[in-house]
Amino acid sequence: MKIAVLIGDGMGDYPLKELGGKTPLQAAVIPNMRAIAGAGTVRLVNTIPAGMSPGSDVANLSIMGFDPRKYYTGRAPIEAAGAGIAMGKRDVAFRCNLIAVEAERIKDHSSGHITTEEARPIIAALNERLGRPGLTFHVSSGYRHLLIWENGPDELVTIPPHDVLGQPTAQNLPAGARQDEVRRLMEASKPILAAHPVNAARRQAGKTAPTQIWLWGQGQRTTLPAYRDLFGLTGSVISAVDLVRGIGKLTGLNAVIVPGATGFLDTNYAGKVKAALNALDHDDFVFVHVEAPDECGHMGNLKLKLKAIEAFDREIVGPVWRGLEAMRQPYRLIIATDHRTPVAVRNHTAEPVPVAVLDGPMPDAGREAPFDEYVNNGQTSGMAFEWLKSQIGNRRIRPQKAAI
Ligand SMILES: [Zn+2]
Q1: Separation of 24 CA from ligand 1 center, angstroms?
Q2: Do 252 and 212 share a domain, yes or no?
Q3: Domain for residue 398, yes or no?
Q4: Strand, coil or helix: what is 125?
Q5: pLDDT per residue as tens digits for the range 201-244
Q6: How far apart (Å, rounded) are the C-alpha atoms in residues 222 and 336?
Q7: Cα of 152 to ligand 1 centre, how many Å?
């Protein structure tokens, strides 16, 4: 049986006045997701264990069937694995954002979605001026980069910059053991970024330019059991972000690089679909992750979030479903969002999210069911990692509702 898991990051939301009391998932045009919910089953699951923060790291570990309470050591070590950076025993990885601060407040955690190509020389300048043996900055993608620090501080509280947009930087700096070393690096990045020609060009073009680095999400290296051992599965993850690629690599899956996958609305959807179907040609599992709905949630931009959800449905869910049908063999198609990123909150929240599962072959019969935050009258079916583990691990075909 072929298994495809398709994730629209941060699609979950709250009812909005602008949508007549509907959530974006209820208001958006998503015929494919609704048809899959209609022909298969749909339920609400918790992706965030009580007491853990609702990051994409914790949520995607859950969806891949891993209990985050057991396996989570921090976001950056997962991203380092995704970026192919080997970590030593004493290394601590930090996420290093290029952020824009204005009037002492965090204005933009993404610096206007600065591109990887623009970021590359900036990271090189940081290495030249601040790097040393045992302390190296690494380019990842867009505004998201990494710092690997041998014997670096691990036991301190750091705050994701997208959690504190608009808030004063001074109140949100890393705090705890060896905080001064981390703060000093962040401070030292300011003149380097201010003087950098890439940033001068961005300012000139009216774009947001990064003003400093922000270090967070630190942790020591982590390991996950392999999918091959757990489920007897080989396969691939397809994502623009190192976090999801990292979970895949840590569990022994291929992390496919799709040219033009950006982590935003302009991503290469067709390329992702092609890579997913290619992967299923020779393996049995694929996990496709689309970042854009989450980014639009962080922007607080409802119009763009609707657009991102609709693009995920039209450009990813529909074509992958049709591709699975064309293979003419048993498949399980799982559609989910990892967490909510409500546009009114501009941040992740921990409430349950919908997951739809369809066992095929089962073509679109045109019978729609809701795929939203209120399926099953809002009743939750427990933790995502338990449910998804059973869906990924148990490949017995369930009897389906008859197609109409
Ligand atoms: Zn997410």
Answers
A1: 16
A2: no
A3: no
A4: helix
A5: 999 999 999 999 999 999 999 999 999 999 999 999 999 888 99
A6: 25
A7: 27
